[in-house]
Amino acid sequence: MPASRPASSGGAILARLGFDRQRLRFALRTTIAACLALLIALAIGLEHPQWSAMTVFAAAQPTRGQLFQKSANRLIGTMFGTAVGLVILICAQGSIWGLTFMLATWVALCTAGGNLVRGYGSYGLLLAGYSAAMVALLGQAAAGHEMALGIDRFLTVLLGAGVGIAVGWIGSQNLSDSPALGAARRLLADTLLLQSARLTGAEPPSVDHLLSRAALLDESLDPRAPATPQHSHIRHELLRLLAATTELILTDPPKDNRLSAPLGKALGTAAELLRNGPALSEALPSLERARSLAGTGKLAALLGRIAEQIARIEAPVSSVPALRQPLETLTARQHRDWVGARHAGLRIFVVLMALGAFWALTEWPAGSLLLLGTSVMLSVFSTFDNPAWIMTRVGLGQCAGAIASLACLWLAWPVAQNSTQMALLMVPFLLVTPFLIAHRKTAPGAVDYAMVFLLLLQPTFPTLITFGDSIARVLAVVSGPAFAYLGFRMVFATDERRRAATVQSMILSELAASAQASPAQIDEASWTTRFSHRLLLLVRMREKAGNKAGEGLGAETTARALQAVGEAIHQLQALRRRAATTGGQQRAITTALSRLSQLQEAPDRAGRAL
Q: In a 10 Å sphere around its CB, with 0-12 CB exposed, 13-18 middle and 19+ buried, how is residue 354 labelled?
């Protein structure tokens, strides 16, 4: 008789159905917190209790540190946005034209800033933009009660953030950098093996693959906003270590046959200890030996930087005085997408002004909701690599939420006898959200299902809205993703391919600026760190674009070419500073730098000059 098959566990069944069990638990906690926030806000008499539930969904994070950081930025962003929204509402004095212009200007500035700032600070700026939109646009129907609306908006957000933190704390984890730290260890170990293989003649790892892994690690570190000094310390030091590792990937070892065997062995030992040792510091003696064998060249300098970073990563924050200070210098050296920020701000200004003109000319009662939905979509998703693509998923989620709101409004609420019953009847519709979030096919638009459902429903008894008005409101809200899609496609269109081209253009522009600068203005350390960061962004964007950008050049080829030009410029600037050079040499250096300053316009002339 064949052995009976073991019963499938609940987790295995969920996995076969396409659900992520861990994400389902997180989403279930979030939804329960949202329902509690809704009921508490209603119980204490807030006019728009659904905004509290929306806050829970918007600020939810899987770890405690992230939850605190995002909630704090949400409160700050909401406070400033609410204040600006009230000012706009009062200054507009009922004029749709005036309201649209002031609102479009404010949201454009916040969106541009959100594309420059990193981490959850970006979220706070974006929120300040669309919080002002919520107050100003929804306040159109509350003439004479603007201040009460603003206070209600802030209190609902405060309540939602508080309930979200309280419930989210249960079952959440402390913020951990171990995945990123483990990835950094493995990447550095394989990079040392690459150097060892170059020295000993063994088969080296793929440089393209190492750059791809470095780019993926950089992307995982980028949005993190740690909540404690220890987490901040580790993240910043990992970014520094990643910059040095990226340089090491592209650095050739010294051509000295006498040192090849011992240097390759020391590097291989360090790599083995990094991969299998109990602590990073186990590899320090081997790294120091490799550094001493490498002499005084670039490889030795990089190994010294890496050894220093390992010591700093494992050192307690309090034991290193320099670590107590914020690392502004590292932040200043990182890439900031000035071009993308400018385009994002102009895009949202143009689209909101066009929709505002339509609203003013037609006086459509649901026009305020159309502007609100579009402003949220164009601002929040402007930071995504391919926002037009995500709009199609978000649009489906919003359509589902709108349909659910109509079902609740006309099928469930007619049996309610008071506002509390109306809120309770919303709960079953909200409990669908965790399953949408946890499924791989519905996850992209799942939160938007809940947000639109809540935005369209205000549990106030009795409901005075007509069926025609509810349909108009639904059409206005779900049109937001459609107009945002058109905006992302037609007004300063953006996707991974275009972002890759922008990053490469910024690298070339900085190279040209370095060639034009005076020798005293050159900061090679800042340039190197920023170059490494931009290079990894370029690699990642090209991967997401299917490697169609850059005329088919591989990551290693592109990186080496850009790095070689940068090093040539800095060597020429160093020669330019030397008083010992003759007049003819100075003229040759000046000519070469002048040609290199036109690198983008005439690359062939720059090459001949070198």
A: middle
Rounded to whole angstroms, how far apart are CA atoms 495 and 484? 14
Length of the chain: 610
Q: Are 406 and 466 spatial neighbours (Cβ–Cβ below 8 Å)?
A: no
Share above pLDDT 70 across residues of the chain, in percent, rounded to a whole number: 84
* 3-class DSSP string for 60-75: CCCEHHHHHHHHHHHH
Q: Is the pLDDT of residue 89 over 70?
A: yes
Given a cut of 60, whether residue 280 has pLDDT beyond it is: yes
Distance CA 38, CA 451 (A): 13
Question: Is 156:163 a contact under the CB 8 Å cutoff?
Answer: no
Longest dimension (CA), the chain: 97
How far does Cα 264 stand from its chain's mean position? 39
Higher pLDDT, 227 or 248: 248
Q: How high is the pLDDT of residue 100?
A: 94
d(CA 296, CA 281): 23
Nearest to 433 by CA among 69, 166, 15, 33: 33
Helix 419-430 × helix 21-43 angle, to 10°: 170
Whether residue 111 is predicted with pLDDT greater than 90 in this model: the reply is yes
**pLDDT confidence tier of residue 514, bands split at 50, 70 and 90:** confident
- Provide the pLDDT for residue 6: 45
CA distances from 113 to 77, 123, 379, 603 (A): 12, 10, 10, 33
Q: Kindly give, in sequence order, each residue whose CB lies less than 8 Å from that of residue 104, ignoring residues fewer than 6 positions away.
A: 348, 349, 352, 353, 356
**At CA 535, angle to CA 293 and CA 112, rounded to 5?**
140
- Asked whether 55 and 104 are in contact (CB, 8 A), the reply is no
Q: What angle do CA 458, 44, 59 make, to 5 degrees?
A: 65
Q: Is 173 helix (H, G, I), strand (E, B) or coil?
A: strand
What's phi and psi for 95, nearest 5 deg? -85, 120
CB burial class (10 A; 0-12, 13-18, 19+) of residue 93? exposed
The Cα 127–Cα 133 span in angstroms is: 10
Split at pLDDT 50, 70, 90, the class of 81 is confident
Predicted TM-score (pTM) of this structure: 0.79
Nearest Cα neighbor of 296 from 268, 243, 259, 264 is: 259
Q: What is the pLDDT of residue 3?
A: 47
Q: What are phi and psi of 360, to 5 degrees?
A: -65, -40
The rounded distance, in Å, linking the Cα atoms of 193 and 187 is 10
In the predicted model, is pLDDT for residue 334 greater than 80? Answer: no
| Residue 411 CB coordination number (10 Å) | 10
Kindly indicate the confidence band of residue 412, based on its pLDDT and cuts at 50, 70 and 90: very high
Instruction: Map residue 19 onto helix, strand or coil.
Output: strand
Helices (H) and strands (E) in the chain, counts: 26, 0
Backbone phi, psi, residue 251, to 5°: -100, 130
